[in-house]
Amino acid sequence: MPKQKPVVIAGAGPVGLVAAAVLVDHNVPVLVLEAGPELSGEMRGSTFHAPTLDLLDTLGAAKAMIADGIVAPRMQYRSRDQGIIADFDFGVLADVTRHPFRLQCEQFKLTRILHGLLRDRPGFALRFGARVAACADRGDDVEITLEDGERIEGSYVIGADGARSVIRKSAGIEFEGFTWPERFLVLSTPFDFAEIIPDLADVSYYADPEEWFFLLRVPGVWRAMFPVPAEVADEATMTDDYARARYGRIVAGRDDYPIRHRTLYRVHQRVARTFRQGRILLAGDAAHINNPLGGMGLNGGVHDAFNLGARLAPVWHGEAPADLLDLYDRQRRGVTVEHVQRQTIANKQNLEAKDPEAQRAFRARMAETAADPAKAHAYLLGVSMINSLRRAAEIT
Ligand SMILES: Cc1cc2nc3c(=O)[nH]c(=O)nc-3n(C[C@H](O)[C@H](O)[C@H](O)COP(=O)(O)OP(=O)(O)OC[C@H]3O[C@@H](n4cnc5c(N)ncnc54)[C@H](O)[C@@H]3O)c2cc1C
User: What is the 160 CA–ligand 1 centroid distance (Å)?
Assistant: First the structure.
């Protein structure tokens, strides 16, 4: 068999670098092409679920993340009128995971940790300032064209180049789904809400028919996320008055928390029509995006990268037929549609339910679930994405 070319990975985000680490562990050489001049330091995803940590531990990355993050042992549903509706303890998952908690840790820490682990490994190469403009499947290999016209050959290409993926567009793969009319505003403050909200968990979702929101503690700040109605102009959301009005929803009579970061973003529910087209593979945000309620987008992307790496390695080594890559598509696309999309849409609809009966039923269901250890265990298997990983493994 002629010598195989490296696998080219577009994007050095968390998903691209996890895919790189898994492939290098399987002795598959990779070339990562990153458009930016360095690893992104953006404040974006910050939630890592239990099975994601179990997986990252196999790469030697989990301990450093835990040391750099906040271990959140509990999650709450709350309302402004009732206080705590339901309080869940991830500790009940200790029978199925080595990490029975949610880790709150900014995603840029994961990319830095992985880069540190990979940098000197044989078979790993990363080029910054290398923006992919197009890709072509030539049957026996792939050709990647950079923005400056340079051409690069690879055996396969993994599009881990984010929601606006050039790889996906270049391959003509549709990104099916919809965009929510409202945008989401994230306000981060060093103010410690636990000082004024009794018994506040580090991860707290507020159900509210007028305006839901959530509070998440990450190292150094609390992040509060609010929906912004379609009729409000982007610029209007960037003012201190607008922030104060949103902050005023959290605790009556207080609205003057200092703002460290402010991010407004559009939220979509979209899944690529396929995650595999010949030698072109998609993973992470390039393959699927969803609203952040439940912290499933980034985690799902990391799960893609592990699944894909484990399928692509034997194919690359000539030990398995290329059809094995279709299993990646069936498993990961399957659970993305069945589990992640469905769950994140339901999470949003439950928190925002305007119908008093629907809002009451949601609160009653959550209270009952949290109070019953067997129901709480079953519920947290879904919340922490253990179920979606198990379901993926069952798909043949
Ligand atoms: C404000 C915000 C908050 C979020 N909060 C959460 C959360 O709480 N929980 C959660 O699970 N998820 C969250 N997400 C989603 C999460 O950030 C993404 O799911 C995650 O970043 C996906 O990782 P990725 O590696 O697939 O893509 P990205 O992180 O987008 O990485 C893509 C990489 O590819 C590079 N790139 C792009 N185009 C090219 C090109 N043409 N050539 C070469 N390189 C290219 C980019 O520079 C980047 O480094 C949030 C997203 C946003 C925007």
Answer: 9
Q: What is the dihedral of CA 185, 90, 297, 215, to 10 degrees?
A: 0
Q: Is 300 in the pocket of ligand 1 (CB under 6 A)?
A: no
Q: Relative to the CA of 17, which ligand 1 atom is closest?
A: 25
Q: Which two tokens stand for residue 394?
A: 């069952």
Mean pLDDT, residues 294-313 taken together: 97
CB 285 within 8 A of CB 175: no
| Residue 2 scores a pLDDT above 80 | no
Q: How far is CA 23 from the centre of its chain?
A: 20
In this predicted model, what pLDDT tens digit does every residue of 318-349 receive, in sequence order? 999 999 999 999 999 999 999 999 999 999 99
Report the nearest atom of ligand 1 relative to the CA of 166: 41
The CATH architecture annotation of domain 7-72+98-176+269-349 reads 3-Layer(bba) Sandwich (3.50)
Boundaries of every domain in the chain:
7-72+98-176+269-349
Contact 145, 151 (CB under 8 A): yes
Task: For residues 120 and 221, give the distance between their C-alpha atoms in angstroms, rounded to a whole number.
Answer: 33
Q: Which residues contact 250 (CB under 8 A, 6 or more apart)?
A: 193, 197, 206, 213, 215, 224
Backbone angles phi and psi of 105, in degrees to 5 = -155, 125
Q: Is the CB of 69 under 6 A from ligand 1?
A: no
For the CA of 39, the closest atom of ligand 1 is: 49
Q: What is the mean pLDDT of residues 231-247?
A: 95
Among 303, 386, 351, CA closest to 102 = 386
